[in-house]
Known about the structure:
This protein is an alpha/beta fold. Helix content is 38%, strand content 20%. The protein has a nine-stranded mixed beta sheet, with helices on both faces. The chain has a two-stranded antiparallel sheet with strand order 10-11.
Amino acid sequence: MKRAVLFLLVVYASVPVILYLFPWILGHIIFAHFMRFPFFLDLSRPEDVLNHTSNFYLNTEDGVSVGVWHTLPASQWEDAPGRSPEWYRETLGDGRPVFIYLHGNGATRAMTHRVELVKILSAAGYHVLSLDYRGFGDSTGEPSEAGMTSDALYLYHWVKKQSKGGLVCLWGHSLGTGVATNTAVKVQEQGSVVDALILEAPFTTIGEVVANHPVTKMYMFLPGFESLLWSILEKNNIVFANDKNLKTLTSPLLVLHSKDDDIVPYYMGLKLYQISLQTKKEYKTDVQVEMISYSANLGFSHNSIYLDPNLSNVIGALAVSSMASLGSFGGGIFRSVGLTPHTSVAYSVMVLSLENFPVAAMFLITIF
Length: 368
């Protein structure tokens, strides 16, 4: 028993020392790109997990090739079998909105919750492009904040060119929210604005997430440990400052966060929503800024917001607002969703019908 306790104490005490001697380890923990789940899946064969999807690669810079899946709107499934990547690329110009999905840390674009979200967006009538950043999945190179942002920015401009001016939205989840806002800032600095930004389970800064992690909290009382963490992040240029980015971004914004998120605390998403409302006020814009708060009793936690049965309607509302630039629809909207078998919450949303796109129709409906 004494030996076991001594062993645990040694392990506990060694963590700060290891981080100090090998600071690059923290970056590997944050990105977790070495965890290439699901195992034994050939990422060049998306048909194993997704229908009407094409795999292709982009050289985002010298020596870096990133893997991307392009999933068509589900209504086009009959036309997809046997089609070439070139045919898939040309469909991006059909006028339908395009979502670029920027996933969180670890695993690949084939992870179950990522695939399920893509299915929902596809069923709603959208093109979806799922990116594995450099170092993730079958993409080459090593991940870094700057590199991952560069990959996303390259894909964004590539899609914009193919879409012939159509709506292109960024959807970031967890770590991907940092990539999404970084990319949106870059686009804005280049004189344009991202058509819409969806942040699912977003954080304020990566440092604040690390400091709030249950494992990290066990060390926060140690003198100098917190400053060590911030020093390592700074030296490795890992910041992902969503809070800072949203102080300048003027894109339509939707924040999705569940109160039982055990990875990124709910208060961070709420804080980002409040920052965006202030930005909207300061810049005097009419863009839509919205947050949907999910009750803990739904059990969505960090990865399962895709289970919201009304998610496609909410996204449709944002797409309508972005496409039509409806100033009258812009505003600050906060919704709390807590549906259980015994209770129901009714709320109104704008729904975009894409059955006869681009001749889109809008319907104001009430969902129970």
